[in-house]
Amino acid sequence: MPVDKSKCISCGACVSICPVNAIRFGEDGKAEIDETKCIRCGSCEATCPVNAIKINY
């Protein structure tokens, strides 16, 4: 999974910037990426203030 939940601060930056709405908050309040929707554009990785997202290209 590309989100390191131990780093995620649930700020919502990734949710807001995702152009295909592939990111949502899970039951634990942390970001989750639906990899079937993700187009690997890197926007979420670039906007995350705590570097919790690493996209495998």
TrEMBL record:
PROSITE patterns: 4FE4S_FER_1, 4FE4S_FER_2. Coiled coil: none annotated. The keyword Iron-sulfur applies. GO terms for molecular function: 4 iron, 4 sulfur cluster binding; metal ion binding. Pfam families: Fer4_7. Keywords: 4Fe-4S, Iron, Iron-sulfur, Metal-binding. Residues 1-28, 29-57 form the 4Fe-4S ferredoxin-type domain. This is 4Fe-4S binding protein. It comes from the Bacteria. The keyword Ribosomal protein does not apply.
